[in-house]
């Protein structure tokens, strides 16, 4: 299978920046580690057959999938559109589940 290009939405980028800032305030260097984990996840998305899993609620009908970070309680919520994987949200596992569903509309 051919790898698809990956795009990060403005909203997801903002969520990453906010989370990294919060983690950095908690412990110096932790925000940078979060950004590194995000960048590694993007690299995985750029490979053929990335390790995505379907989301577990009504947004699954739209084809939304997620890539779960291992060391942080976040997922990259993705949707495939126009030969690209779009990261629509950088979602915390315990905060506002499914808040990003409105972003799935074409």
TrEMBL record:
Pfam family name, one: ParE_toxin
Origin superkingdom: Bacteria
Matches recorded under InterPro entries: RelE/ParE_toxin, RelE/ParE_toxin_dom_sf
Keywords, comma-separated and alphabetical: Toxin-antitoxin system
Gene3D superfamilies per UniProt: RelE-like
Protein name: Plasmid stabilization system protein ParE
Organism the protein comes from: Tamilnaduibacter salinus
């Amino acid at each position: 299978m051919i790898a698809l290009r990956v795009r990060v939405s403005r909203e997801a980028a903002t969520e990453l920046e906010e989370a990294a800032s919060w983690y950095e305030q908690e412990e110096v260097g932790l925000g940078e580690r979060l950004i590194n984990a995000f960048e590694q996840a993007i690299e995985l998305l750029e490979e053929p057959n990335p390790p995505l899993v379907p989301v577990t609620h009504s947004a699954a009908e739209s084809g939304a999938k997620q890539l779960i970070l291992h060391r942080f309680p976040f997922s990259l919520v993705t949707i495939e559109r126009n030969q690209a994987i779009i990261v629509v949200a950088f979602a915390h596992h315990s905060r506002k589940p499914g808040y990003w569903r409105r972003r799935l509309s074409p």
